[in-house]
Predict the structure.
Amino acid sequence: MGLYSEAWFEYKQLRNQLLLAYLGFPVTFALKWVWRFFPDWVAFAGYILFLVWALVLFGMEVRLRGLTCFHCGKKFASQWWYQRSTLLAPECAHCGLKKYAEH
Ligand SMILES: [Zn+2]
């Protein structure tokens, strides 16, 4: 068990939830065509689901982008002059800690 094992485990959980949310998001959009055959209140509930899903997705993305490095405590994927997706960042933008490194 490395020094950062638990922190990386939590990161992986958040990453997997975000990927699932991204996969599910087009489904909520596609359901728009299905819901038109149902009463208005079902279609309205569908729009609410779409909006809530979008907000949750946005919140998860913000949370992941705000991930701080477990070693140096600065933003893992971003410098002051650029923003990088934490999902795609192979290492800390500040101290070079490799993603999933144990120490
Ligand atoms: Zn760092």
